[in-house]
Amino acid sequence: MPCPETIFRQTQITSDFSHFLRLAKEPKRMLNDLFETAWKQRELTPEQHAPAFLLAWTVLAATAEITTGEVNPESWSPAICVDADWAARFNNVMDNPKSLMRMYVKRFAASWPIFTVADLKRVDAVLPETLTREAVITAYRSNLSIHSQPDCWLRHLDEGANIVPDWQHTLSAWVAVRRNLFVDSGWYNTENTARIVANAFLSLIYFLKESKLYFENPSLKPDIFDRTQVLTSL
Ligand SMILES: [Zn+2]
């Protein structure tokens, strides 16, 4: 079922996908090269996926900058969140049961909500990453000054609602992971574990690929890795 809440603030900024579709050849190639660099990193171990996520984020941010004209994520993220073209690109892939993006988005969503590490540091509440997800949620949500994204997700968990992770929820979780990246330099806390960051990276990089925003270099060999992943996920 769709989320009954509007989870993003209103914005005056609009997104126009035609700007991206009409992008000149050179900048398009530059972005596709950047995408390919990030794409190859999905075969690294989850512990190495933080810089990979940062690269994939850079591609997302540049694409959003092109469709909205805004450089600051505070400006472009609400705009692409409510944009029908961005949402359709994501949600159409989610409709495909064989999609790897869908698999990684579901794994990523198993770690939602993403708590704001800056809040955790402020109240000195960072927990060791060995705790279960349930214990983490119980501890962090007890302090009302600790925020999380998607901000409706705790209520969904309480209600036992089976909310399919859609564009709006997933984008807000990617934004939350990006904001956490440099707050805790040790990657030791429960909101920066390899599992969360790796699934954020893999869901994002497969979104960029499977939504056909960017393309793998056709000269690359057939991708055995992908097919193996599909088989093991069934
Ligand atoms: Zn929701």
In a nutshell, what does this entry contain?
This protein has 234 residues and is mainly α. Helix content is 57%, strand content 2%.
Give structural attributes.
single chain; 234 residues; mainly alpha; two-stranded antiparallel sheet; 12 helices; 2 strands; 57% helix; globular; binds zinc ion
Q: Can you give the mean pLDDT?
A: 88
Determine the strand fraction and express it as a percent band: under 5%
Number of helices: 12
- Radius of gyration, CA atoms, in whole angstroms: 17 Å
- The coarse silhouette is globular
Which ligands, by name, code or SMILES, are bound?
zinc ion
The domain count comes to 1
Task: Write the element-wise H/E pattern from the N-terminal end onward.
Answer: HHHHHHEHHEHHHH
Number of strands: 2
Residue stretches low in confidence (pLDDT < 50, at least 5 long) are: none
What oligomeric state do the depicted chains represent?
single chain
Helix content: 55-70%
Largest sheet: 2 strands, antiparallel
Q: Please state how the strands of the largest beta sheet are arranged side by side.
A: 1-2
Kindly name the structural category: mainly alpha
Termini separation: 23 Å
